[in-house]
Amino acid sequence: MGLATETMVLNMGPHHPSTHGVLRFILRTDGELIHMCRPDIGYLHRGLEKIAEQLPYAQFMPYTDRLDYLAAMNCNLGYAITVERAAGIEVPLRAEYIRVLVAELNRIISHLISVGTFAMDMGAVTPFTHSIREREWVNDLFEELCGARLTYNYIRFGGVAFDLPEGFLDRLSRFLDYFEPRLEQYNRFISRNKIFKERLVGVAVISRQQALDYALVGPNLRASGIDWDLRRDEPYSVYGDLDFDVPLGNPEFGVVGDCYTRYWIRILEMEQSVRILRQCIVKMPEGSHWNRSKKKLKVPPGEIYVRTEAPRGELGFYLISQGGPWPHRLKLRTGSFSAMSIIEELGSGLMVADLVALIASLDVVAPEVDR
Amino acid sequence: METESILERIRRIIGDTDPVWVDDQPGDPYLVVPKEKLRRLAIYLKGDPHLAFDTLMCLSGVHNMGEPDEMEVVYHLHSMRHRHRFVLKVKLDRPPFFPHFYLRVDSVSSIWPAAAWMEREAYDMFGIHFVGHNDFRRLLLPPDWEGHPLQKDYREPEAYREISTTREEVEGIVVGS
Q: Could you tell me the pTM of the whole model?
């Protein structure tokens, strides 16, 4: 004879601290156990796709910053590559290296926030302040580079807006020298922390098949053991000339595809980003930073789907041009969107507290879901 | 597998005449499939071991105003096993009367679960109905929103639940010119 229980509907959000932006979940729970979990999204819908259809190509660049404000450089980069491929614009080599440099730097700070908020959602507030501290340094570097700390609007069609200021690379390598040992400190502090591990290992496992079915991308996909990284497998910019590993979820970390693996993959990716950055510093060529065209930008009629590896995985731009000054259609395909859609399936059967871990481990950013 | 051999395999299953292969424009070539054959083809694309399109990368709606007034649903497929990709398109007529009756296409959400939310978004933005979807409602906009904003002839309602959607004009600043 079990205890008679009754399900109840619990509303989580839209302003719950663990929801990383404005998200709402409608849960049907039986005590602590979730029977049904229904995400309700759209609170941050700004109609970016509609805006794109009404602006000249170049003017949409600042909006891509707002697509994912934690990784604005990567969004800039994806959009720039899309238009360049459609219009056939060449990019000088120095600009390509600067682009990879800022993209990887942005990946590091995006993962820092992800890891920091993850620990905070699990009840450890201090690691977040540490990750913010490291991020501040990078924000200063970006500010020096383009004047903005969060929404950069730095990458242009055919290059980047400004050349690297004097001594930038020295300051960057000083940051890397400072940052690399810090990562080890993180590992001592949280990654190998017994409480943190017990809380996450084996929680909300996403199988290989589920990851494919729901079109998960980026670190979430690799945590499920699928070896796919667009930087390596469909190289764009100068990633083909750079040497880096793609960390994969494997049983050494716990269970493949659980919350802890998704966390750990991000730590490993930061190490790889540091490696890429060091190569960029050494290889940085001289030359022009912007192949600035005097002619009006003309995108011939046609359509193209370009995807790049943003911190939250594949960022796809599907551009249809009819030859006009603005796109006929621009579809934004983001990593967080597919990550959100799997929560509906995975949520049922979890404990309420584990749902928080799941959301945090997928590194969902609400503006990227809602666009 | 090369795009040409993928196309050849698809032609074999769907019959030679129907699908239209468009590759005379810059960018990605695509295959236009009659909507009656979409579901059968989707099952084959996922199931065939040589094609094995196990991931739906992106599903987009497109509205082409003009002659004829039509909508498109575009499927960007990717195979993680073979590392190749392919683009499918379905075209739907949008006659001036009872357009919702014509804007219907089979849902592929039972084949690629990722499509479930993408189709809901396409419905939300374009008013395309996906038949056989088991949780079909708006995704991003409120359930009682009127119209589908990404249609080219969409007019924003003046108010939503008595909240104005425009700002009052301030002297010297032109809003929504």
A: 0.87
